[in-house]
Design brief:
Blueprint: E1 3-7, H1 12-24, H2 26-29, E2 33-36, H3 44-54, E3 58-61, H4 68-73, H5 75-96, E4 101-105, H6 132-150, E5 154-160, E6 163-164, H7 173-185, E7 192-195, E8 201-203, E9 205-206, H8 207-219, E10 228-232, E11 237-239, H9 240-250, E12 256-259, H10 277-283, H11 291-310
Parallel strand pairs: 1-2, 1-3, 3-4, 4-5, 5-10, 6-9, 7-12
Antiparallel strand pairs: 8-11
Helix pairs in contact: 3-5, 5-6, 7-9, 7-11, 9-11
Amino acid sequence: MTSLLLTGSTGFVGERFCERIAQAGSACSGVTQLSRFNGSVLDEDNVRRQIEALQPDVILHLAALSHVPTCLEQPEKAWAVNTTGTLMLLQACVKYSPATTFIYVGSSDCYGASFKTLQPITEASLLQPLNPYAASKAAADLMVGQYGMSGGLKTIRLRPFNHTGSHQRQDFVVPSFAAQIAAIEAGLQPAVIKVGNLDAERDFLDVDDVISAYFAVIRQLESIDSGSVFNIASGQPRSIRSILDELLKLGTETIQVELDPTRLRPSDIPTVQADSRRLQQMTGWRAEIPWSETLKGILAQQRQRLARKSD
């Protein structure tokens, strides 16, 4: 019997996590009772009330300000939500639910400048963040590790690499491409797609593969040491250009590609590649969903969205 409190349940991954729990049941997910955290993680009384009342076996902490451009514009908000919010949860667990296992969902962005080595990133690679989002997540990651090693709470840290899927916001790269293609097909914009840096390579996963990794960790909680860290990745870098090319082939129109300087990041890393063997060895997890199916699903969802609007 595993009761789980989920933060960030209204976000892209959180909503899909809840759907998967409902579809798969406890045998697959390891979760027998799911509760959604309500309200702000920055409201100390709110955090205390929910953790004290529920005393869950597991907290899966997904809540974060994750859009990098927004974090660049509002760094104080990024640090508040991503770092201070995490601290609020940790302190409440220690005081009111010390038997809880705290699973922190971090980010591959925390590795930052370590990607410049052009070597596959392991969990031992240095955290060298290059933007406020990554820095705030890295600080929280280290804090969760400290609580797990000497703070009186069992913690596990997960570092997922880029993941996408249907219903992700359009200000992320893959749904942005798909939304523009769907709009062009529907005659809603000229046959020009706006892009940022197409030469960057990223290690992409389908969101369902990432959620399957979360399930795998939850099922193996007893055998995972406190403070452990796991990368979640495919191990296969893909250029943004190749992703756009695949989506354009799935489209029905001839489309011109045009650089949009506003979509460029100040510290863009050329190549991101990860080593997730530690997670595979511990849980048996590996990425399984074909990338072509992920892209088809995202484009189909964007077409359906526009079709519903026109009805």
